[in-house]
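Appendix B. Worked example

We walk through a single record from start to finish. Start with the input: the chain for IS701 family transposase, Micromonospora rubida, length 413.
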Amino acid sequence: MLTIGERFRRPEPRRRMRDFVRGLLAPLPRKNSWTIAEHAGDAGPDGMQDLLTRVKWDDAAVRADVRELIGRQLGDAEAVLVIDETGDLKKGRHTVGVQRQYSGTAGKIENCQLAVHLVYATETTHAMLDVALYLPKSWCDDPQRRAEAGVPEQVRFSTKPQLAAAMVETAASAGLPCRWVAGDEVYGNDPRLAARLRALRLGYVLSVACSHQVSTGLGVYRADALAAGLPTAAWQRMSAGRGAKGYRYYDWSLVALPRATDNHGGHHWLLIRRNHSTGDLAFYRCWSPQRAALHTLVTVAGCRWKIEESFQAAKTGLGLDQHQNRRWISWHRWTTLAILAHAFLAAANANRNRPDPAGLIPLTVNELRHLFNKLIIEPTRRHTGPLLWSIRRRRHQARAINSHYARQALIEQ
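Next comes the structure step. The output line below is what the pipeline stores for this chain.
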């Protein structure tokens, strides 16, 4: 609250903001304005709903404060900015950005909402940094849906790589210490994103498809064809980082691409990963202003998994995907507060990899959240009558049921 408190001029919204984030940190079975308000000891959900809708505050400014906090607490000159999107399955068509589209979370085409996230990753920790909601072209070209969802007039259609480039540029322009960018094929297959990163003098390790074309001294080849011709001596086995069950060992090969030159100079490579058990291949297009060792590029490639850990922690523990917000501003505010809660835990746990004299494993973000709730939140939080909240919930549900039946009766007639 010392980090973001200046964004609120009055004490009431500051208190509600504090209580809202406490609710996100608490182990509630389901997180929405109702459950968070009950946890905070409020008499009703109106205050928490107002915080997401009517109270004046700038979610982009709060994310800028989060970026400053992360840079101050976790800043590392060798840090990696990891980009990826996550999808939330939805019903209906009125929630902002929802349509039938491919979701990597579901692994298929679903009715869902997609958002591009940016995570700050160092050797020891990682924290959620920024977010941009992906608004499909069908939404951008529909004035009625935009108006109903409160989409700002200045918002235009942007691809996921364009959204990622804007977030990375914002972070770099703000002076956040970082050197690398990592992302999957959605971002590696977009040459404009790679060009923008080179202009920012940020090295990158971006996944590309097996059909990706690379220029070598002997001509232009597909990435998989180039890998097939590599001799046995071209492969080295090394770890891409720690996993839940040990180090993640793969066979790696690095091919320099001297013909891949542009106005930004630097060094281009094709990094190839081979699973030593199945033989499956993965390909990465790499660039750096200075020469980089194979081990460095492998480490950056391995950092991409850290965004999945951030998604898991934010969804299971902080309610990132439990929002019930249909409109543009309320969606961004909820997501911003989940990012704030995750950044708080990461910053508070920045020294978790120091050796423990008792031989314990380092504190995890989830364990820190559990301890913070038990030792800090619960002893100080206000309580309200559970029967009053039961009556309020049942009254609200009764009104909703009556409204649905009344609307159905009008349609049937």
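Two observations about the output. Residues 383-412 form one domain. The chain has a mean pLDDT of 90.
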